[in-house]
Specification:
Largest sheet: 2 strands, antiparallel
Radius of gyration: 12 Å
Strand content: under 5%
Distance between the termini: 29 Å
Number of domains: 1
Shape: globular
Number of strands: 2
Number of helices: 3
Strand order of the largest sheet: 1-2
Length: 83
């Protein structure tokens, strides 16, 4: 599949990977999870970032859908944090 800049996993049809990430997020303790509104806001910020390619943050190598699910995580771009 061709690289998709500024795409999340659900945009690039990585269904198996997305399913695995969703299962991991579901298993997180509630006190560690970002709320739905915060999670959506973070993903929207990521979609507007040049460091996002095919669902992966090129600053840290993580899947943004997973990183954004943690309440205490930050955008890994230390020079220009999006969230």
């Amino acid at each position: 599949m061709e690289e998709c800049k500024r795409c999340l996993l659900h945009d690039v049809a990585e269904e198996d990977t997305l399913k695995s990430i969703k299962e991991r997020i579901d298993k997180l303790p509630e006190q560690e999870k970002a709320g739905k509104e915060l999670y959506s806001k973070r993903l929207n910020e990521c979609k507007n970032c040049d460091n996002l390619i095919s669902g992966v943050c090129m600053k840290c190598g993580c899947y943004v859908e997973f990183r954004a699910a943690f309440k205490k995580q930050n955008c890994p771009n230390t020079k220009d944090r999006k969230w």
